[in-house]
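Format notes (please read before filing issues)

Several people have asked whether sequences and structure tokens are stored in separate files. They are not. Every record keeps both together, in the order shown below: the sequence lines, then the token lines. Line labels are part of the format and must not be stripped during preprocessing.
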Amino acid sequence: MANGKQATAKRMKMAERAQQQMDIHFPNAPRVFLWHRKTNDGYTTLPRTLPIAMQAIDVQTKGQPAGHTLFCLWARSPDHILVTIENPMTFACEAGFVGERAVDTWRKRMKKLRELFFIATKPGPSGEFHYVLLINPNVALERLRASGLMQDGLYARFLDRVTDIGAFGEIEAIREHWKAETAAAQAINAAPPPPAPPPPPSSDSPATT
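Then the structure lines:
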């Protein structure tokens, strides 16, 4: 199973191979046609498992697919997990919703994303979704699986992908976190109740000096 360092080395080798193939098949491609995050402006960092997360979301939101809505949140993030939404209409339009009910439709998708634990939200000046915390999609997908909401085939592809990119440690970490939470809750429930406080002194009791 690949760890983080092994995955990084693998990506570098893949990049080198890709450049070799590009030199063969597209040697004269003008650089102005190409996009690279180290030389072009306007980029953010995205989880490599995001396409699988979008597919899993769409399965759970049939008729009202919300996967693209999540992608737009990540694409608008300032390379940080907190997104501040000043103008919901902007996000609604980028998610593909138009017309008078665009924002209402977008808000319904946002509620679905929150229910599925891909985002957490706090209200602010622009409404219910002013502050949006982007949850690690690997954690959200593992939670879907634990809840019985992710099919075997899709989950198998997800595990293959996180292993390939060296992120399986995140899955192990969240499993351990949930185990610890469960153990703590069980310990609290198993603990005996505290003793009752002593009764207040009776008014008939003799005064002490």
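For reference, the curators noted about this record: The first strand starts at residue 82 and ends at 84. The CA atoms of residues 126 and 190 lie 45 Å apart.
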